[in-house]
Design a protein that fits this description.
single chain, 277 residues, alpha+beta, 2 domains, 32% helix
Amino acid sequence: MTGTIFTQGVVYNRRRDIHGPFGGQQYGGICTPAKHPFIFIFTGEIGEAHGYADGWTEAGTYRYFGEGQVGDMEFKSGNRAIRDHFRNGKDILMFQILGKGQVRCMGQFVCCGHSYEQAPDHDGNQRQAIVFALIPAGDEIDAEIDRIEQIESVSEDMADLRVNALAAAQDSPNSKGHEARRQLYRRSEVVRRYVLARADGICEECGALAPFTSTRGLPYLEPHHIRRLTDGGPDDPRFMAALCPNCHCEIHHGVDGSDKNRRLQKLIDDKESDHEI
């Protein structure tokens, strides 16, 4: 699943099912609807006609060429949106182009870096192309984060933790392959360590003590991304909270979840303002 909207492997009509309810650019490979927390990207053999070929690597990342048919690619419009999707609170949903307006959902992806390489443009001239390293947001990432998110004691200096977390949230990596994955995990660890330390064992929504002690001997709370519909990948700590499992589940699945999420953001705003240096 990708949040609660599209199901991986299911075929959709691009115009009716994507642009109809969400808007955004109806042509091209990157769609950035302004009023929704999504970036829709489209991949397929048709891209080879414009000088680029997307696809999987041996490292398990998906090479996705940026937009721009003629001349060097630049970080503007859709390319900038993919690069900055963490800091902007946007989820990347990728679809495979099947033809005749049909697309198959490939799932939610996370941008963990980018690189530059020479590739022909639409006119056959060599130019600098932006190639994003995307990895599926799912069990593999979550499992790795679960192993590292609480390895440090919450007794570390809060000011240092906050500075490092804010820096990690604003980082724009440019690595690829296995290093891109490691860089993503490191960023996730830094941000989540601060959020858990800020909570200090108390749910940041309901104010209750953590329900139990984890196997690492620390209060168990779950990091939650307030701006996002899913919890894959790192985000800005000013838009994250550490919640007890009850509150976390209610925000995602409860009838009053959206209202609770909005109230939670106000609580975190107040907390973060107290930490401003």
